[in-house]
Each structure stands twice: as C-alpha cells, then as structure tokens.
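ok trying again, last paste got cut off:
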Amino acid sequence: MEQERHAVTGAFGYAGRYIAGQLLDEGFVVRTLTNAPRDLDPFGGRVEVRALDLRDASALTTSLQGVDVLYNTYWVRFNHARFGHAEAVENSLRLFAAARAAGVRRIVHVSITNPAEDSPFEYFRGKARLERALRESGLSYAILRPAVLFGGHDILVNNIAWMLRRFPVFGVFGDGAYRLDPIHVADLAHLAVRLGGSRENVITDAVGPESYSYRDLVVRIGEAIGRRRPMIRISPRLGHALGLAAGLAVRDVVITREEIGGLMAGLLHVTSTPLGTTSFSAWARDNGATLGLHYASELARRR
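nice, full thing came through this time. structure:
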C-alpha cells in the first residue's frame, strides 16, 4: 500500500518544523510548501520541497497534487509594509481552494483561541473568517486553536526572558491579571498529526496543562533564568511606545497595539480541557540557562 503524503506549509519554520518532524517520525511521506532557502532545511533532504506561491492558484494546485493531508501554519503576526492580515486571509483562501482542486482529503489548520468575525482586533477577525471558509469548503478539516506557543525558537517567551536579562524592571500592561494558556510546540504538533489521521470535522482549543496570569508568567520566566525583576504597571499606550523604541533598537516589531489589546482582553485564555501535557514551569526551569540569551526577531525570520 502506498504511503500517505502529508504537506506542511513552512516546514523549515517554527510550528511547521515540529509538525513535519512528527510526520517523518510516524513514517509519512512529507512535503513542504515554503519560500525558505533549501540551506535552512533541518531534515537533511527527507522532506519534498515545493514553492509556496500564494498568488498563483494554478501553481498552488500543482504543488498539492498527490497530497492526502495539508497542515496549514501560514499566517502573519502583524501588519507590515511587506505583508498584512488582509493579504494573509486572501492567500489562505487561495490555499484552501487549491487544496480542494488538487484532491487533498483533509486540512489541519492552525487558528487562535477566541476568534470572532466581529472582534475589534483584525488578527482575530481574520482567523475567524478562515475558520468559516474551511467549514464551508466541503473538505474534511480539523481546526486547532492554540493561545501561546513555547519551546524551540519561540518568540514571546524568549523575548520576555531577553528583556528580563537586560533591564532592571519589567513593565506590565495594566494589572497583569489577564490570563494566557501556553502549549509546547511539540504538543501542538503531536495533536495536529493525530487529528490529521482522523476523518471527523473538529474544532478544538489547543492549550497546555498550566494557565497563568501575565504577571505570573513573567515571574516564572524570571525565576527560571535567575532574573526576577520588579514589575511596574504601565498603560497600554506607554507599553506600545516603549515597544516601538525597542523595535528600532532590534530592527523588529516587538509588540503591536492589537497584541496588547488581545492579551488584556483575555483572548489568549480558555476554560477548555488542556490537550497539551508539557508543563511550562518545568520546561522553563530546564531551559533557563539558555532562555533569552538572544533576541528572536520576527522580521529576521521572514527575511
């Protein structure tokens, strides 16, 4: 019997790399749709490489020929001169249409906790729009809704640690009591591959076993790296201004108004049963010696 072929968008990137690795471990033929250079391939040529040409429907369909399951991790974190949420939505719709045209059996799509088409935040509106499109596509689907990913080369947790290593105090937006539910990226990958093997249409939150207030998360990170800092309360406006200043120094977008707003609105927290098993606190302790030694740049990754 011929092996199933599973495709992953961005298998040389962050979450896609873990999903592709899990698929290889389970014996599947793996293809990636990516625009990353081949010298970034962490799999030694074991993954088939096709171009991720999101503006060419015909090329996308060709790249997906022979694929049984598609894992879609493609998205953009913020609006930028070179990319934006509206474009990411249109590109993803093209990807879904190409998958259907190519005969892909199932799509496993990475979304976000608490998406809503009437959200005040474009990020969450865009994710909700894509969920609806996938539900209405006629394809078999699984939609995963993670809040915050950690492990590997994550950005949020690493850069909080980076700041704690370099500054004597840490600014918290408002009271810091709003919650978030981190999940290890390997747990997300394991869940994605498990659901890729199902035929049931499912939408599920993907969170880990521990939930934290933002303030407590910063405390845990500080303890893990030996840099527990005093925390000061700052307004969202000041926090964004400080983020802009830091972004100029590191040539990146450190944080956006939307990210601050979504965080403070509690959109990275759910009350669902945890599906991840990796303890954030234990992971942070185990990785404290290296966590935050270097800044993780979103723009550098995209370049």
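cool. The CA atoms of residues 115 and 124 lie 5 Å apart. The radius of gyration is 19 Å.
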